[in-house]
Amino acid sequence: MDWGWIIIMALAILGAGLIAGGLVSYRGSTRVGVKAFGAASVAVGIAMWAVVLMAVPVSQSGGATSAPTVEVIQSR
To answer: What is the chain's pLDDT, residue by residue, as a tens digit (76 residues)?
Structure first.
């Protein structure tokens, strides 16, 4: 497994945990500081998921090469 995939999976797991924990701390507390920390952790978790969604490829072209082939056709 590539280090890039490990980092992406770690970001996804940590981001989901921050979103869930931030929602619980924001909804469950009456103190302003805890609510601010919960809202900030939700925002950071959403930013992590945005990075994950931009970094994960949506489709794969199989075993074909990605370089295009160039052909020259001469007309007479």
So the answer is: 788 889 999 999 999 999 999 999 999 988 999 999 999 999 999 999 999 999 888 776 666 666 777 888 888 7
Matching residue, tokens 């469950």: 28
How much is the CA Rg of the chain, to the nearest whole Å?
22
Provide the 10 A C-beta neighbour count for residue 27.
9
* Tokens 């981001």, residue located: 15
Is the separation of the CB atoms in 66 and 57 below 8 Å? no
How far apart (Å, rounded) are the C-alpha atoms in residues 67 and 47? 33
Instruction: Indicate yes or no: pTM above 0.70.
Output: yes
